[in-house]
From TrEMBL:
Keyword Transcription regulation: no
Protein name per the record: Coiled-coil domain-containing protein 13
InterPro entries in UniProt: CCDC13
BP GO annotations: cytoplasmic microtubule organization; non-motile cilium assembly
Protein's organism: Callorhinchus milii
Length: 525
């Protein structure tokens, strides 16, 4: 695998491995070819060792001085040591038989010469005796030669017997070695099968790890999407908070201006009352201010309503908040005739009771506005603190993200280097089998290295370990992101609960202020 993707960056490697099925098929074929290559190399080594053993057997059979190429060029006319031994043994037997026949012939010739000397007393007896003696000398010399040749042949025969015994012992040793080598080959084949099974298991694990990696990448994309949505929500909330702060400030300034206007109106009314000092018991001007507190629009409106009804009916006006609470309630019963007279006499003066009532209403409104202003200022300060805290958290999150990206880049570089090193270390491991010692000619037993069959491609193990480490790091990152999201949600929930509590406190205080004003009004009347 590292040879195929050594020119690519680690990110493109991950993309190709996770997206392209052809690359996966090629990787599987590459692994199968690597396994076949390892098996063929093991077979070649075993064949080389068998060839060396056969060469040694031939040298023991033929001899060290004879050239094998010369034997091959003779075309089958050469005889081995066993055939030469048999031929020499036959020659020795023939010579022994000839020697025995010559001895018997010599004895028979001596007897015949004695009989001839006894029975025949010819005048040429001396010549015959001399001839016989010459023949006897010749025969004795030939006999001595034959005996010496026989001794030499016997020595050669003994030497050949010794060599034959040595060759038999050597053949036995070689047969034992062949048996051991066959058993070792069988064990190596079994180990090769186990190694093939192990390679299959590792390939399955690699596929599972690729699937897990794809799942984790999908989860990472989902987490990024959720993080972006949360950041957008935080930005929108910050914008809404800033707009709320601006609106609240405008509301506070408007209410302060209204309070100042009301104070000026009260002062003007008091001055007019002091100047005119006219009885105004016949006419009353019912007025009422309605305070509607709308939390969606955050603005206050003052309205005054005057209704004419039949005699005995009450003129009532209410100030209701957006939460549904009755804030101010005031009433004055007037008949149509009194209303008409009051309108005619309004040009002369204003009743003190109505002025007092308006003053109490204005005071209650002023107190409510002050309470709302204080609470809204607290809310503004709290929102500013939250915005600052969220900005700090955002900076910390960006810094952590940069650190994580830097670490991931370093880990990817290390992973690429490890894969390249693994591929380089796999090449020289194939040539380690050439340095094995040869078999000794003295009959020493040479055993194969069983660990040579377990030479698996290390890129598989290195890549699986690196992928496991990468998956563990990604899992930890996902856990950290989930924890950060949980903390962000908890903080937002806490902030909303605090805002709700503050709004409820403000509403309750405003309600108490208006209830106190109503009680005071009822006590006065």
């Amino acid at each position: 695998m590292p040879r195929v993707t050594k020119d690519l960056s680690p990110k493109t490697k991950d993309g190709l491995l996770s997206d392209n099925p052809e690359v996966k098929a090629l990787q599987e074929k590459l692994c199968a070819t690597n396994l076949k290559l390892v098996e063929s190399r093991n077979q070649i080594q075993s064949v080389k060792q068998e060839l060396k053993m056969a060469h040694k057997v031939l040298t023991n059979e033929v001899g060290d001085e004879i050239n094998l190429q010369h034997l091959l060029s003779n075309g089958g006319h050469w005889r081995g040591r066993a055939e030469q031994i048999q031929v020499l043994q036959k020659k020795v037997r023939e010579l022994e038989n000839q020697l025995r026949q010559n001895i018997q012939k010599g004895q028979s010739s001596e007897q015949s010469t004695e009989e001839a000397t006894v029975s025949w007393h010819l005048p040429g007896q001396d010549k015959n005796v001399a001839h016989i003696r010459a023949m006897e000398k010749e025969r004795k010399g030939a006999l001595e030669k034959m005996t010496s040749d026989h001794g030499v042949l016997q020595k050669d025969h003994e030497e050949l017997k010794q060599r034959l015994d040595g060759s038999k012992a050597r053949n036995k040793v070689l047969a034992v070695e062949v048996k051991t080598l066959k058993s070792q080959i069988a064990t190596l084949l079994e180990k090769g099968k186990h190694d093939d099974e192990l390679v299959g298991v590792l390939l399955k694990q690699q596929r599972q790890l690729h699937e897990v990696l794809d799942h984790l990448s999908q989860q990472e994309m989902k987490s990024k999407v959720t993080e972006q949505s949360l950041s957008q929500q935080l930005n929108s909330e910050a914008q809404t908070h800033s707009s709320l702060i601006v609106q609240l400030r405008q509301m506070v300034s408007e209410r302060e201006a209204k309070v100042k206007e009301l104070e000026e109106e009260v002062k003007q009314l008091v001055q007019k009352e002091q100047q005119q000092k006219m009885p105004t018991s016949e006419a009353q001007y019912p007025s009422n201010l309605t305070h509607v507190d709308s939390f969606g629009e955050h603005s206050l409106h003052r309205t005054s309503t005057v209704e004419d009804e039949t005699a005995g009916s009450l003129l009532s006006a209410r100030s209701v908040s957006a939460m549904g609470h009755i804030l101010v309630e005031s009433s004055a019963a007037q008949s149509p005739s009194t209303l008409a007279t009051g309108r005619n006499s309004s040009m002369n003066g204003i009743d003190v009771n109505t002025l007092q009532l308006q003053c109490t209403q204005y005071k209650s409104l002023y107190q409510a506005v002050e309470v709302e202003r204080d609470k809204l200022l607290e809310l503004v300060s709290l929102q500013q603190k939250r915005v600052e805290g969220s900005s700090e958290k955002l900076l910390e999150a960006e810094r952590k993200l940069q650190e994580v990206r830097r670490r991931s880049a370093i880990l990817e570089q290390q992973l690429g280097k490890a894969k390249l090193d693994a591929g380089k270390s796999h090449d020289p491991s194939k040539h380690n089998n050439k340095n094995k010692p040869n078999l000794s000619s003295s009959g020493g037993r040479q055993s194969l290295n069983p660990s040579s069959s377990r030479d698996l491609p290390p890129a598989m193990a290195v890549s699986s370990d690196a992928q496991l480490e990468e998956l563990n790091t990604r899992l930890t990152i996902q856990m950290d992101e989930n924890g950060a999201l949980k903390t962000a949600l908890q903080s937002t929930l806490k902030a909303k609960q605090e805002d709700l509590a503050l709004y409820q406190d403000m509403v309750s205080q405003v309600k108490q202020i208006f209830l106190q004003a109503i009680r005071q009004h009822k006590d006065k009347h």
